[in-house]
Design goal:
The protein has 2 domains: 84 residues, Rna Polymerase Sigma Factor, Chain: A, CATH 1.10.1740; 96 residues, Winged helix-like DNA-binding domain superfamily/Winged helix DNA-binding domain (Arc Repressor Mutant, subunit A). A hairpin with a 2-residue loop joins β1 and β2. The chain has a two-stranded antiparallel sheet. α1 crosses α2, α2 packs across α4 and α7 packs across α9. The protein is mostly helical. The C terminus is likely disordered. The termini are far apart. The protein contains 10 helices and 2 strands; from the N terminus they run ααααααααααββ.
């Protein structure tokens, strides 16, 4: 199918077409869910729930945004519901590999400090500690800041896409990203200014 034809089939209730669409997006969906819940089995359940909700709600899809954007709005909401039910803010302890697309200078500076191509033993130890602190710091961000940060810097979505997913203004997303970066820089200040053998990171 072409995307438009596939969407038309899905809206008509064609489960086969929807299954084909799911196959195209399920890996990314599980990855996004895992960023929120830090449990692979839960991430699969969350993404499955989001896909089911999407299929059932297709009659309400008007095509004013891309289907995958509409789906990710549902997915993020299911993730938030999961965290509320679990009453926790667990977060994946990931290797720091942030997407630099549209990143501000401040965003790049704070993370490039832990991306040395040839780290010394001292740098390796400090980078490990910084990665753990960064994971905790992201988890402690207010919900809107955390959501924007995860979608942009971990999953590489554009500011416009995040605005559509969260039904927010582009300016609001930029503000949330700016605040998230400022909060993280403040929380990690001791690490970004630390002296280690071989120089300053």
């Amino acid at each position: 199918y072409k995307e438009e034809e596939m969407i038309a089939q899905i809206r008509a209730g064609d489960s086969g077409a929807f299954c084909e669409w799911v196959e195209k997006h399920k890996t990314k969906a599980v990855s996004v869910a895992y960023s929120f819940c830090a449990n692979y089995e839960d991430a699969k359940d969350i993404s499955q729930e989001a896909f089911i909700k999407t299929f059932k709600a297709m009659k309400h899809f008007r095509g004013s945004s891309k289907l995958y954007t509409w789906f990710y709005r549902i997915l993020v909401n299911v993730c938030k519901d999961y965290l509320r039910r679990k009453n926790r803010n667990r977060f994946i302890n990931f290797n720091i590999r942030f997407n630099s697309r549209e990143a501000t200078t401040g965003q790049q500076d704070i993370f490039e400090r832990i991306a040395s191509s040839d780290p010394t033993p001292g740098e390796q130890l400090l980078n490990k500690e910084l990665g753990e602190e960064l994971t905790s710091a992201i988890a402690s961000l207010p919900e809107k800041q955390r959501t924007a940060f995860i979608l942009k810097n971990i999953h590489g979505l554009s500011i416009k896409e995040i605005a559509e997913i969260t039904r927010s203004a582009v300016g609001t997303i930029k503000a949330n990203l700016f605040k998230a970066t400022a909060n993280l820089q403040s929380k990690l200040k001791i690490y970004t200014q630390a002296e280690i053998p071989g120089g300053v990171i």
